[in-house]
Input
Amino acid sequence: MITNLRDARIAIIGAGSMSEALIRGLIRHNIALPHMVFVMNQSNQDRLQELHRRYRVAIPAVEADKAGMIREAHILVLAMKPKDIANSLANIKPLLNPKQLIISVVAGVKIQTIEALLERSLPIVRSMPNTSATIGLGATGISFSSQVSEQQKEIASDIFESIGVVTTVDEAELDIVTGLSGSGPAYVYYLMEALVKAGMNGGLSQEAATALTMQTLIGAANMVKETGESPDVLRHKVTSPGGTTNAAIEVLNQYQFSEGIQHAIARATERSKEMGEEIVKSMNLK
Ligand SMILES: NC(=O)C1=CN([C@@H]2O[C@H](COP(=O)(O)OP(=O)(O)OC[C@H]3O[C@@H](n4cnc5c(N)ncnc54)[C@H](OP(=O)(O)O)[C@@H]3O)[C@@H](O)[C@H]2O)C=CC1
Ligand SMILES: O=C(O)[C@@H]1CCC=N1
Output
């Protein structure tokens, strides 16, 4: 039984952006030792080499190494796309043992579906982190199958706390967590893109517009965090009657800015559910 994360062999299946965010967070924050982290993917060798060069994590030298890495892992992280989970679990199913802890970051796919694909009940943690985990500022929603022990809950929470903040939620709430904070960084980047474009349209250089945009977002987020005041109160403090901000907010309201964001998140939440259901249907699972 693993009591210290640094003694745990962690096998990460999938080597994409979310996988790298987790790897970088774990290694840079000294939560896991590089030689204890085993990363594998479907076929992209260049990508595995790149992760090895960057973080010194272990990668399979030949295809046959994957089986041993999975068999000997204490913790298995599922980090492939939802459409690939059935195929991937079919491959690893014979290699698993009941002592292993499975952590999924796969959007939309229910614990029940993972169990059905594995044809057994194992300790499964379903999570929804985001890519800001890369710099230790991730936001993760997490839920647990009934097989997960208290000690395993702590281990999983420690992993995600090492790369940001963690909120335990009911599994059904992970779809809204996905729509809000899983996809959330993309909405903020989209806003930043628009702010930079607006600055450049007004005559600023790209560098100046980017620097001002970035600091504005960091400053605003930290104001909410450090003053404890609500975004609504802080917004009103910026908005002088008859002033520039008020004029801008009137335009945003004409474009239904707030409603647009809320609809977007509702759609992402719905999409998370759909992606889970698509797998259930395609595999004829219950
Ligand atoms: N990106 C994000 O912001 C977030 C993503 N997630 C979730 O994380 C998961 C991964 O997303 P992301 O990193 O963006 O995806 P990417 O497309 O960047 O990476 C997917 C990885 O899965 C690998 N893969 C595919 N099939 C298999 C297989 N059968 N066995 C082993 N590995 C396989 C791919 O390997 P190869 O390249 O060789 O095909 C690739 O390395 C998704 O389920 C997503 O929902 C969760 C939170 C945030
Ligand atoms: O877009 C996606 O499906 C994934 C899940 C959350 C963020 N990226």
User: Anything to note?
Assistant: The longest helix spans residues 257-282. Residues 251 and 257 are 9 Å apart (CA to CA). The first strand starts at residue 10 and ends at 13. Strands lie at 10-13, 37-40, 75-78, 101-104, 124-128, 138-144, 164-168.
